[in-house]
Amino acid sequence: MQRRNFVKATALTLALAAAGFVTQPAIAADTIKVGILHSLSGTMAISETALKETALMTIAEINAKGGVMGKQLEAVVVDPASNWPLFAEKARQLLTQDKVAVVFGCWTSVSRKSVNPVFKELNGLLFYPVQYEGEELEKNVFYTGAAPNQQAIPAVEYLMSKDGGSAKRWVLLGTDYVYPRTTNKILRAFLKSKGVADADIMEEYTPFGHSDYQTIIAKIKKFAGEGKKTAVVSTINGDSNVPFYKELGNAGLKATDVPVVAFSVGEEELRGVDTKPLVGHLAAWNYFQSIKNPQNDAFIKMYRDWAKKQKLPKAESVVTNDPMEATYIGLHMWKQAVEKAKSTDVDKVIAAMGGQTFKAPSGFTIKMDEKNHHLHRAVFIGEVKADGQFNVVWKTKGPVKAAPWSPYIAGNDKKKDEPEVSKGK
Question: How many Å apart are CA 91 and CA 118, to the nearest integer?
Fold first, then answer.
């Protein structure tokens, strides 16, 4: 009788669980589910697909070393297809249906802002691996890419310096959405603080997927031909970078004449471009594949081996880049925080994340700030080489603390450098 009652009770429990009335914390399962929320199709696939592969590679590495608290990680991959509302829909699916303990994902700021309310409402946890415009600090998000003071501001300061060419006029060129517009708002205010007149700043935006840059390149050439040294700051995102750089080469705009510094172009985006005409143009990041140290050698080898094993397209020529490194750091730091908290409970993991460190492929020991959910990151500026890699021409002496609220935007001096800690509903 007791056995029969036990069987009935077990069957009832299973039925309730299947109906969604019984939930189990992620830690009680045989595996710990990890969500991967990156565009594998559409205009952003050129950049985001490699981040999905990096996350899967890192999960495999962690699992091979015993997993997290003795449990294997199980990846749940979804494709929001470069569709910003679909990001929110897929985030909700990962948290409510797939019951993931954490999500690694998004590239554009519009996709991140699309999912932020979902993570707040459901008290989920997102690791965001790409440089962004700042002006945000969410309790449920850890930002492993650069804030403006860890990329945009140092890059412009470099171009203003004698070593960088002493630029006097500026073209702020970007894709038309929140990251480029907010970053350029910050840069315009910064340039004004340095005495640059409005007449010496040109601002242009193109939609996602834009492919015809002939007219814009002609305008840049005209603007640059008016007597003062001109530099272009590019916040173009996604596959539009390919036609932009092709047209730059076709127009003969060399780095010695009008240098371009990019914040969203790395080794992966340059794989589809003839880089010989682009030699000397710049990118600012917190990591380049060309950095020489044992950690980076191991990281590059691991990804090349992964690409061959998974038979990725053009596996023989895969490259690593900054957001891939940020994904790798984020996954390892989350693992460390879970093991410190002895739980995948979101609030406990958040509390354990502050102060986490990791010896990164960039060569520095990277720290998660104790309060502001951002990494302390070194800054590198690299010149494009003929082989599509970057020669580092400038770097900070060590990691720089992120400033999520830019001092060049009015009112930011009154904002707290830490997220609200009230639990999401």
Answer: 7
* Token pair recorded at residue 59: 């999960």
Whole-angstrom distance, CA of residue 379 vs CA of residue 149: 9
Element (H, E) at 78: strand 72-78
Among 199, 267, 189, residue whose Cα is nearest residue 227: 199
Angle at which helix 322-341 crosses helix 45-64, to 10 degrees, equals 40
> By C-alpha distance, which of 344, 334, 328, 425 is closest to 373?
334
Write down the mean pLDDT value for the chain: 91
Sheet containing 375-376: give its strands across: 357-359, 365-368, 375-376
CB 143 within 8 A of CB 323: no
Kindly report the backbone phi and psi dihedral angles of residue 102, in degrees, each rounded to the nearest multiple of 5, phi listed first.
-160, 155
- Name the pairing type of β-strands 390-395 and 230-235: unpaired
Where does CATH 3.40.50.2300 sit in the chain? 11-146+291-376, 150-285
Q: What is the pTM of this model?
A: 0.90
Helical segments of 263-293, H only: none
Alpha-helical (H) ranges within 275-388 are 294-310, 322-341, 346-353
- Architecture of the domain defined by 150-285: 3-Layer(aba) Sandwich (3.40)
Say which CATH topology domain 11-146+291-376 has: Rossmann fold (3.40.50)
Task: Evaluate whether 144 touches 203 at the Cβ level (below 8 Å).
Answer: no
Q: Which of 263, 269, 270 is nearest to 286 (CA)?
A: 263
Q: Pick out the chain residues at pLDDT < 50.
A: 1-28, 422-425
To which H or E segment does residue 171 belong?
strand 169-175
Distances (CA, A) of 82 to 47, 85, 96, 416: 11, 9, 22, 32
Residue 121 has a pLDDT of 98
Note whether 107 and 38 are within 8 A (CB).
yes
Q: How many CA atoms lie within 13 A of 290 on its CB side?
A: 17
Q: Is 270 exposed, middle or buried (0-12, 13-18, 19+ CB in 10 A)?
A: buried
